[in-house]
Amino acid sequence: MSDPTTLARSARESLAKGLNALQSDPNVPPQLVELGAPIAQAMGALHQIERSQGAQLTPHAEVALNNVRTALSQLQAPPNPHPAVIAAMEAVAASLGMVHA
What we know:
Helix content: over 70%
Strand content: under 5%
Number of strands: 0
Number of helices: 5
């Protein structure tokens, strides 16, 4: 099993790909770009875990997990998702297992 710092970094990098997918496409409607807010919050919490080398696992891990779950739920909600939302959803889903570990 990887250490918390490595897991946090890997999860944050995956989330960054998801956030980038939403923010880099100029054709993504603004209401979909706003779905990036919980992704950014999770990334901030994971960064705190990285910065502390795992010493500040609590409460940041719970904050990250809750925000990743929220982001995934919101990304799955649209009935006909934009391709950028699909890319973001895949990246967020990939990070969920790392954050949950």
